[in-house]
């Protein structure tokens, strides 16, 4: 709005603007990489996290139901281990689609970061959706693999690379591959213009 000083109307402690009724972030702007520079969402987030979590033992994620915690160093290690496992054991490739049907879990951020680092498109769905709704979403997104739990696995049809149970010992083993060294994962060039996610709306979240 012409002649309007947004800084003067914004409350410095909360970022609330009386003129617009909106809140603004009080943090300094984050410099973005040139749009033509290859960069995955995982790489970008890690570049920010590395300057924030200077102590690897800092708690990164918490399961408030079970009390389970994940430190930042554990999170990074699990992301790299899972990415390696998905390439080597499941032969997932860039631009594949991974369907995710799971209730909230401390493992979900690890799954997202691992998939995005490989240029794999994530397609999360509501586990409360009906079988018909899930079938329609799968028809739209055409996933080659699904991340599910014992509770949701029955809603998923047969896929090229099957299903991965997030609440199974096998999945936990994918997070702790001890033979991984830096650079062992096949390099993937992810462009900023690549598709990162296929999302669905029930009509209330669109």
TrEMBL record:
Coiled-coil stretches: none
An annotated Gene Ontology molecular function: CoA-ligase activity
Residue ranges annotated for the AMP-dependent synthetase/ligase domain, each copy included: 63-206
Keywords, sorted A to Z: Ligase
A Pfam family reported for this protein in Swiss-Prot or TrEMBL: AMP-binding
Database matches in InterPro entries: AMP-dep_synth/lig_dom (IPR000873)
PANTHER family according to UniProt: 4-COUMARATE--COA LIGASE-LIKE 9, LONG-CHAIN-FATTY-ACID--COA LIGASE
Protein name from the UniProt record: AMP-dependent synthetase/ligase domain-containing protein
């Amino acid at each position: 709005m012409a002649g309007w000083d947004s800084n003067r109307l914004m409350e410095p402690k909360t970022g609330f603007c009386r003129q617009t009724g909106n809140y603004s972030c009080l943090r300094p702007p984050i410099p973005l990489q040139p749009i033509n520079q290859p960069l995955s969402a995982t790489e970008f987030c890690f570049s920010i996290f590395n300057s924030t979590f200077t102590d690897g033992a800092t708690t990164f994620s918490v399961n408030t139901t079970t009390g389970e915690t994940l430190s930042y160093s554990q999170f990074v290690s699990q992301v790299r281990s899972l990415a390696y496992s998905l390439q080597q054991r499941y032969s997932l490739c860039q631009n594949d689609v991974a369907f995710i049907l799971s209730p909230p879990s401390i493992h979900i951020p690890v799954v997202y970061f691992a998939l995005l680092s490989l240029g794999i498109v994530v397609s999360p769905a509501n586990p409360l959706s009906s079988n018909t709704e899930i079938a329609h979403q799968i028809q739209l997104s055409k996933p080659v693999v699904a991340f599910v739990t014992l509770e949701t696995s029955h809603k998923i049809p047969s896929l090229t690379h099957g299903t991965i149970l997030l609440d199974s010992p096998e999945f936990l083993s994918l997070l702790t591959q001890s033979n991984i060294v830096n650079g062992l994962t096949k390099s993937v060039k992810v462009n900023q213009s690549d598709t990162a996610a296929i999302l669905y709306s029930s009509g209330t979240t669109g």
